[in-house]
Amino acid sequence: MLLKKILFPLVLLIANSAFVSAQDISDYNVVWNSQSKNSSESMPLGGGDVGCNVWVENNDLIFYIGRGGTFDENGSMLKLARVRLQLSPNPFKSNFKQELKLKQGHIEITGDNHTLIKLWVEVFKPVIHVEVSSGEKLTAKAIFEDWRTSDRQLSVEERHQAWGYSNVTPDELPIYTRKDTIRPQTSSLVWYHRDSKDEMVSDREAVQQHLGKVKDQVWNPMKDLIFGGELIAKGMRFTGTMDSIYVAAKYRGWVYQSIAPANNLKLDVVLHTSHSPTDAEWKQGLNTEVATSAPTAAKWAENEAWWAQYWNTSHIYINPDKTDHTGDKGWEVGRNYNVFRYQLACNAFGEYPTKFNGGLFTFDADFVKGDYKNKTTPDFRRWGGSSFTAQNQRLVYWPMLKSGNFEMMKPQFEFYSRALADAILRTKIYWGFNGASFTEQVENSGLPGGHAYEKLWGGHPLSPRSDSSSTRTLVNQKGESMKFLDYGFLANPYVVDHYDGQLEFSKMILDYQLYSSGDISKYLPFIAASVQFFDENFQYWSKKLNGYPLDANGKLIMYPGSGLETYKAATNASNTIAGLKTVLTGLIDLPSKYGTPQQRAYWKGLLSRLPEMSTRELNGHKVISPAKTWDGKVNNTEMPQLYPVFPYHIYGVGLPDLQLAIDTWHFGIDKKNQYSIVSWHPDPIFVADLGLTDESKNLISQKLGNAPYRYPTFWGPGLDWAPDHNWGGSGMIALQEMMMQTVGKKIYLLPAWPSYWNADVKLHAPYNTTVEAIIKDGKVEKLTVTPAVRAKDVIVMPSHHS
């Protein structure tokens, strides 16, 4: 609908403007005109759930292969392999260009004599294609490179990749990355990694966490897991092996050479992952994949169509009308916003969610942090593989709501849905009540990571945590200390009593339904069990500590609680109250098909039992307090007092008491280091949701500015790892919030948008609504709202001139 003339609450908009954006996603293609120095200068390539780091170094085309869910028995997320292609004569003597073509989702590398190398990954099958064409005949040498040719004991430094063992020394418990199986054939090579059934981290964690008696009931997602694939090198033959070192890791290469020079060459890599009791069963599944793996025009067309619809779903283009982008920070921010979306799309159909700490695109650790120089293999990343940290993961998935990529959110929802039974089981065994307890740092089984619970001790059998280590001290309402034997609490002081992640993902699922009308019946048990846990947990401890479940006003005494990782031993933490309030309200507001009458009555009752959030006087201003009380320490650098702003949107543009929240941002923080834009820090989101335009522009310019590596959105390592995906995700959320915020059915445009950033935007709002707008000089010059009936709900905020 082209709106001719519509009166909005704040401004009169006249559409049919002469300003028309010429922006196309291809304008953001990443182009390099010189070769790379090493893997840190690689370019992402992917599709489905496969990600490759692609670069050309010393005239060799090299790519790492990553795939979601490739967890070994220790919880490391293993790279599948590295592939090297050498062409002769060298096609890059005089000319070189490497380009990520976003619109089609593939990479092209060009050289002399019309040489073209096209790399692409099928979106709907785990297959990588390398296609070479040239005006002169070329011979090729393809080398399959593997660094897991023998069992390798993980050093102390390397154990960060197997996060459950990160605080265990080799003397206490030797941990090994087991070798791959590699089977070269005449013109192909099959390889795979089978997880060792006797060394499963989830089994060991069950014993450690006093769940040994019910270990058979604990879901083990790595049971019988085999992953690998087949390299297909038609027109080549296997000529032998070679040994070498790349960066810091020794490897063996299986070499395939051209039978005869040719103008056209092809290399295909077919991947396969399955839970198979036998190697033969896995191989049968691989054969099925290989049978239909050849590249065809129809497959390419299918890929093109998928990428086209992906880019058409949403965008934010900044200053698209300008031709010279030199020094244009707005254009840089817009480019990086869209380019980062490519990385997220590469795991669109993953079984597991995109990892915040590198996603599918980690590269050699030597180029990330000096601490790991010459100490690791390409499998390394900090903060583990099979372990997921909720406060980081959330930032990867929140931006998919406004970008309209609803189906891409499913892997994160499925993660909690699959592990729900284990979270319910541990709650019942430890405390005897109902509900699900997902800790902040959680393994893919649903159990806490061993590093957070305590140590995974050496010896066989592995021992449960001792009673002395399982004894905790709590304080009752009279101020008296009391000791309890509690096998369920976490010894890690940062994440003890921190279960808020399950509330935030509950809200995300509810918002997914609000935006898309998608069916969330499958995920309702997770949400229901999450809120029930908080209710029963706080009543349980109050009865033990005080002799009564609720206070004199019938409200929960929310202790022992946690202001995230920062304010510990908290009572009535504001982040938890805000989370429960918004989730319970969202549950009650769901269509009637969700929840039984009994459940809805319970949700309403629990909502009425929530205490109010506390405020305090700080720096001469009334501000939101992190909690009613806590231990007086500032343990980390989060701002839970602003979680009522984001993600819970109790305060913000168009909502009551905005000044209280603004004052909390400016005056309600205890330490200066709580302000930051690095990694997961959501500061740009806070200021955008508060409508603070100048601060939003300044912080987003830092957050979505160019990364320190050659590829512009390989941020990090920051507090996490590189490429840091929660860095990019938090930046995406902030830019979206600067452009558009929603309250109920109201849609606020330009709530924190600088007037000197022109824009072409397409974003999604609740109730299956799409908003497209052309912005020039702080005014909306063209607006299309779908469905048109929702146009009446749009409110354009006054333009802000710095």
Q: What does the secondary structure layout of this molecule look like, with pairings?
A:
Layout: E1 5-7, E2 12-14, E3 30-32, E4 43-47, E5 50-57, E6 60-67, E7 81-88, E8 97-101, E9 106-110, E10 116-121, E11 127-146, E12 152-153, E13 176-177, E14 181-184, E15 188-194, H1 201-208, E16 225-232, E17 236-246, E18 249-258, E19 262-275, H2 279-291, H3 297-313, E20 315-318, H4 329-345, E21 387-389, H5 390-397, H6 399-402, H7 410-431, E22 441-443, H8 450-453, E23 471-475, E24 481-485, H9 501-516, H10 524-546, E25 561-563, E26 567-570, H11 574-588, H12 597-608, E27 615-618, E28 621-624, H13 658-667, H14 683-689, H15 693-703, H16 725-739, E29 740-743, E30 746-749, E31 759-765, E32 769-776, E33 779-786, E34 794-796
Parallel strand pairs: 30-34
Antiparallel strand pairs: 1-2, 3-8, 4-5, 5-6, 6-7, 7-11, 8-9, 9-10, 10-11, 11-18, 11-19, 12-13, 14-15, 15-16, 16-19, 17-18, 20-31, 21-22, 23-24, 25-26, 27-28, 29-30, 31-32, 32-33
Mean pLDDT: 94
Query: The biggest beta sheet, please?
Result: 15 strands, antiparallel
User: What's the number of extended β-strand segments?
Assistant: 34
User: How many alpha or pi helices?
Assistant: 16
Terminal CA distance reads 33 Å
Given helix and strand content, the structural type is alpha+beta
**Compute the gyration radius: what is it?**
27 Å
Helix content: 25-40%
Estimate the strand proportion. 25-35%
| Contiguous uncertain segments of 5+ residues | 1-22, 457-461
Specify the overall morphology: globular
